[in-house]
Fold this sequence. Notes:
Blueprint: H1 3-13, H2 19-31, H3 35-40, H4 48-62, H5 67-71, E1 74-76, E2 79-81, H6 94-107, E3 112-116, H7 122-130, E4 135-140, H8 143-156, H9 163-166, E5 167-171, E6 185-188, E7 193-194, E8 212-214, H10 219-225, E9 231-235, E10 252-257, E11 263-269
Parallel strand pairs: 3-4, 3-6, 4-5, 6-9, 7-8
Antiparallel strand pairs: 1-2, 9-11, 10-11
Helix pairs in contact: 1-2, 2-4, 6-7
Amino acid sequence: MKIKDALNLAKQKNDSTRKLLECEILLCHIIKKDRIFLHSNSDFEISNSDFELLLHHISKLNNNYPIEYITNKVGFYSQYFYIDECALIPRPETELLIDYASKMITKNNIKKIFEIGVGSGVISIILGLMHKDLEIVATDKSDKALEVARKNIKLKSILDSSLENRISLFCTNLLDGIDRTKDDFIVSNPPYIKNSYKIPPNLHFEPEIALFGGDRGDEILLDIINLDAKYLCCEIGYNQGYLKDYLKNYDDICFYKDYSSFVRGFIAQRF
């Protein structure tokens, strides 16, 4: 079957609003080619088994299974990373957390940071690529998530061979058992959804440990605030701006908004 015919038939089976794009992404994944190849070789013949696999993947999409988990690939901060069901899929708004953290690192000449809830590793890796002399201690309660982070650190070591030496991973809660100093810098995108919240269908395939923060949703965030780091950068839920009331030990506090103008995080500093 020709590529153009396969895409046309597959598109008709796809229920999403991005019918053709998703079919192209999936076919690229299956035949190990890029979209330029698809468009410039539309008469190229693919096997029946490849077409059947394409239809199988589309069926999963129609059941709200994330395309990123099918392709094991996610775009984030102009980079591509490995991803699977063991780690939360990075969202565009988390790029804002990196931007604010990076500015604070530069402004205060920070040489070491801690990330709580490293997940796929994208925050630590991007910050490590942006700041070549930065040491990063990253923790997560999930061994499986840490394996995803390790894969991504190795993957991006092609860009900076020092990453594997500068990013240390630990399986622990918060910073339990980690040596700290009075000038700690903590960055985190922790779970902040309350346990009773009815999440959209696509989120059901992502790890609950990375989504739900407790009965109120803010329990882990409050635990992080109570660590009393000198510098603190956190992503939060759109309705959690009240956390400013728990940041009274900080001298400089700034809440920032996401691309939809919802409050999405804060940076805080003690002088």
